[in-house]
Amino acid sequence: MTAAIDTTGIIASRAHSASRRNRLAWALAAALAVTFALSMYLGDFPIPVSGIIQSLFSPLTGLANRSVDFIVLQVRLPRALLAIASGAAFGLSGIIFQTLLRNPLASPDIIGISRGASAAAVFVIIILGWTGLAVSLGAFAGAVLTALAIYFLAWRNGLTPYRVVLIGIGTDAVLIAAISYIFTRARINEVQQAMSWLVGSLNAARYTDLLVLAAAMAVLIPALIALLRSLDPMELGDDTARALGAPVEPARLGLMLVAVAFAAFATAAVGPVGFVAFVAGPLARALLKGAGRGFLHAALIGALVMLVSDLIAQHMLPATQLPVGVVTGACGAIFLLWLLITSGRSGRVN
Amino acid sequence: MTTLTASAPPRAQKAARLTLGLLLLAMMLAAIAALSLAVGARPIPLETVWRALTAYDATATEHRIIWDLRLPRTVIGLLVGAALGLAGAVLQGATRNPLADPSILGIHAGASLAVVLGVAFFGMTQLSSYVWLAFLGAGGAMLVVYSVASLGREGATPVKLALAGAALSAVMFSVINGILLTSQRTLDEIRFWQVGSLAGRSMDILFQVTPFLIVGAVLALAVARLLDGLSMGDDVARALGQRIGISRALSGLAAVILAGASTAAAGPIAFVGLTVPHVARSITGPGYRWILPYSMLLAPILLLGADVLGRVISPPGEVQVGIVTALIGAPFFIALVRRKKLAAL
Hints:
CATH topology of chain A: ABC transporter involved in vitamin B12 uptake, BtuC
Largest sheet of chain A: none
Order of helices and strands of chain A: HHHHHHHHHHHHHH
Number of domains of chain A: 1
Helix content of chain A: over 70%
CATH architecture of chain A: Orthogonal Bundle
Radius of gyration of chain A: 22 Å
Oligomer: heterodimer
Structural class of chain A: mainly alpha
Order of helices and strands of chain B: HHHHHHHHHHHHHH
Distance between the termini of chain B: 39 Å
Structural class of chain B: mainly alpha
Number of strands of chain A: 0
Number of helices of chain A: 14
Shape of chain A: globular
């Protein structure tokens, strides 16, 4: 009897969570669509909505208007799509790290993985003189190497969240020193060029970057979904999960690799845009209020944060285009304070 | 009664041993200082160094190198090193946090941010005007980090302090990067200061920061007894009749003065304040009355040693001291984090 009541209760609450999850996902998707439309519309060169729509479909309809098409298809569209893709990748990377390490501060931008990408980019730009896609490749390698270094340094009969975060902070300090050193050795123009890469920017968005990132995500997202299934038994605790035959360690390692890859590809495409990975997970959780893990929602929030921040960065100051990383950094500050204060109140940080 | 008299001689012995240790360190420091005067792009024999110091001859190039370049550099290294060591030890004691350090707690980021703002928006270009900005930034950052970390029920726990410091540093650095991106002039001004270096600092700067360093050092040494109380935990300290709020405020003030002044003079130098107190503690045991003077001598040994090393490892150029200390200090920090005992934090 009681069992029956319990089951209906669980089913009812599951149905309730599911509808909450769905509603939230649709709301976020709608917000993203509106922002996307806005990003097509806003700019120094005013284009009527009909012109934008005509341009967007011109590859199909064959109706061309060269100057409008250039602005819409070569400037605004790749920029907005790259913002959405990289934001989603950062958001996913962040929430995987945060879930696995059970610590909101364990996102790749806080523990130095993005800094590894920056240090590598600065190295290849200034010392090796690379440009373009090669820089992105270098940055990718830097992020992966840094993640490996943190993993091995923090490993000691397993990983504990605080150790990963603190080792990450230490690694970050070394990378900062390395970047500063390279800067003192270079000509100021080279420094300036590398500098814009350091903050993360969409000002030079290209379809090549977008294509690489989209291809990577087409592989990584199915991998993530497959791995997440094996995460379900782990909610019951490692021992129970093992008893149920779940491959706990391989799943964890696999997820970690996927998370590093998301961060590395996104960083390679747009630079180390700070705090997007960091805010997406906690925001998704706060909005879901316990109704599920929120990976999809974190991806949507990451994309939304990136797109909104880039709009602000483009249009806030009249004559200058700020890099998007400056805006996400400032917004991240406010969010971070809130997180530290509220997590302190509930009595724990990790 | 008997136990008291019996325990007295070992204690006196320990004091004598530690005093002897201090003397040895002072001698080591003198030797490294001499090395710092002699070693460089142009090596100068020690007799010439001695003659330059005792019988200055303005026509001799080597004498001029010693007085104009290497002496200011060495003296700044001595003072900045001592200040960083003391600041780190005081911070670790006051926050009961073995990871406390001016860079971990965001003091360096605060100082850097203030200097960047000054250069970018108020056109300050003199190293000497950085002093005040760095102070302002260091103090402000310390205040913010500490208040953020102490919000919530259990107050400023060591891990929360380190996390708040690291996270707020990240925020401040993103603002710094934003400003540097839009202003090449500021970037050019700041990039050499921001590494942390003892080179190219004039006597001017030395005179400017010395009063602060002295006040900070005196204050730090004066709070040693209070730090011993704080290190036993708030409840014990309170039971011993200590007013912990005032103790924390005084030690915090000492740390900010020391870290602010040293950052102003040499730029943000990481890890010296972190590692040195641990070495000192491993020699002296837990009492801050010994840890502080030991840190004060050990830190300039490390800093000047790193500076001398940086001058010779990549000829013909130099590696700035802030980079050498990061390369020495970071592995130490990581080893510290890996130690099991820290899990109890």
